[in-house]
Amino acid sequence: MMNDVWKRIFEDYIKSYESIEHLSKQGIAGDDDIAILRNNLLTDIIETMRSEVEE
Questions:
Q1: What's the CA angle centered on 34, arms 31 and 8, to 5 degrees?
Q2: What is the pLDDT of residue 1?
Q3: Cβ distance 38 to 20 under 8 Å?
Q4: Radius of gyration over alpha carbons of the chain, in Å?
Q5: For 33, what's the count of Cα atoms within 13 Å in the CB-facing half-sphere?
Q6: Residue 46, CA distances (Å) to 6, 12, 25, 41, 43 in order
Q7: Residue 29: what are its φ and ψ, rounded to 5°?
Q8: DSSP letters of 6-47?
Q9: Per residue in 3-37, pLDDT tens?
Q10: How confident is the model at residue 52 (pLDDT cuts 50, 70, 90)?
Q11: What's the pLDDT at 38?
Q12: Which of the four pLDDT bands, split at 50, 70 and 90, describes residue 47?
């Protein structure tokens, strides 16, 4: 079972993803901005996982 810390981390990533999707669907942010936001989120997720694997 996932510990509470990882659960909160994943919940935050999901909220971030949903926020980006909302901005996209509502036309609040353009395609270029959405691509940057998605890339930043993916980079953050990968860096978090990398730090855990390297410990």
A1: 160
A2: 65
A3: yes
A4: 13
A5: 11
A6: 14, 14, 25, 9, 5
A7: -120, 145
A8: HHHHHHHHHHHHHHHHHHHHTTSS-HHHHHHHHHHHHHHHHH
A9: 899 999 999 999 999 999 999 999 999 999 999 99
A10: confident
A11: 98
A12: very high
Contact criterion met (CB below 8 Å) for 17 and 41: yes
Tokens coding 42: 């993916």
55 has pLDDT over 90: no
Q: Tell me the C-alpha distance between 33 and 48, whole Å.
A: 23
Three-state DSSP class for 1? coil
Could you give the CA distance from residue 38 to residue 2 in angstroms, rounded to a whole number?
A: 25
Specify whether the CB–CB gap between 23 and 34 falls below 8 A: yes
